[in-house]
Amino acid sequence: MYFLHNQVETIENMAQKVEALVPSARVEFAHGQMREKELERVMRDFYHRRFNVLVCTTIVESGIDVPSANTIVINRADKLGLAQLHQLRGRVGRSHHRAYAYLITPPAKTMTEDAKKRLEAIESLEDLGAGFTLATHDLEIRGAGELLGEEQSGQIHEIGFTLYMDLLERAVQALKAGKTPELDRPLDHGAEIDLGLPALLPDDYLPDVHTRLVTYKRIASAADPGELKDLQVEMIDRFGLLPEPTKNLFAITALKLKVQPLGIRKLEAGPKGGRILFGEQPNIDHMKLIQLIQSRPKDYKLDQAAGALRFNMDMTDPAKRIAQVETVVGKLAG
Fold first, then answer.
1. Top-level CATH class of 2-110?
2. Of the candidates 174, 329, 306, the residue with the CA atom closest to the CA atom of residue 257
3. Which sequence spans correspond to the domains of the chain?
4. Contact 141, 104 (CB under 8 A)
5. Which residues lie closer than 8 Å to 261 by C-beta, 6 or more apart?
6. 163: left (phi over 0), alpha (psi -120 to 50) or beta
7. In whole angstroms, how far apart are CA 34 and each of 63, 69, 73, 84, 206?
8. Lower CB count within 10 Å: N or C terminus of the chain?
């Protein structure tokens, strides 16, 4: 077992405390200021299991593999960086034995916000490929600075890595098209859909917070209905039949993809009807819109001041509301 105490001045004292707490353990300590031969002896003895608890500093972060070590206790984990914690956690579990990593921290109220974020990130990610995700979290917490320059203290932490990359992507696409990037224009996340229906991934369906967040991201990022359908099939295969709120989430996301090419910026609906707010340049046939209003003046009205189409109809049945809204959108799409 490793007991990580990253203070050379007090490491010997800490080793004595560990030995007093566990009298049956054989305890040694190691740090980077020891003589080379002495450090080599300690590590060799630990490898050959001549003692079973090594009190050490972060010197073991990239040391030799010790397959028999399956537990690491990290004292004052709040003082270590995210990459360090990930590396240190990887010191154990390097054979077929189940591994354990315990992080000792002071009370949450005495830790910095960045320290809390680091600990939350290391706690939530334990799957294969977690290294890349942890690196992304580290960028969000510390800030990435210039991507191609020498400066490493940028303002990316003010907005988060994901939003920063979205803004960068929009600027690159504008330059490729020969346009001047509109840096002050808010990001376009598509039409806003509000049907007054629960649309979410329930906790009892996906208990793991990280899995829920990743799934929300994948649903929101679906490029077309086919990709959304494939994701739906995958979720049923992995987690079981979709609960009603999750079905609503997929249906509303599909509706969002459907109205996006029409230049609709917001769609609201409730038990008695709703309204469709158009963008500055809606991509619909104006003659069809006029014909729709003229043929059913009681059901459809144009609010020119708000740039919206209002529709009045019975939508009290939540199960049918999405289908009714799709019908209205279909009439506009032609």
1. alpha beta
2. 329
3. 2-110, 192-333
4. no
5. 283
6. alpha
7. 15, 22, 22, 21, 49
8. C
Indicate the residue type of 270: G
- Of 113, 117, 63, 54, nearest in space to 88 by CA: 63
Strands 71-75 and 192-194: unpaired
280 backbone dihedrals φ, ψ, rounded to 5°: -65, -35
Per run of 10 residues, the mean pLDDT along the chain (length 334 residues) is: 94 95 94 91 93 93 81 93 82 80 91 86 63 57 51 53 71 83 64 88 87 86 88 90 92 88 86 86 79 85 81 86 87 74
**Residues belonging to the chain:** 334
DSSP code for 6: -
Of residues 267, 330, 275, the one with CA closest to residue 299? 275
Q: What span, in angstroms and rounded, lies between the C-alpha atoms of 257 and 277? A: 16
> What is the chain's percent helix, strand, coil content, to nearest 5?
50, 15, 40
Specify the CATH number for 192-333; select among 1.10.530.10, 3.90.1150.50, 3.30.470.20, 3.30.1140.32: 3.90.1150.50
Give the distance, in angstroms, between the CA of residue 283 and the centroid of all CA atoms in the same chain.
34
This model's pTM is above 0.85: no
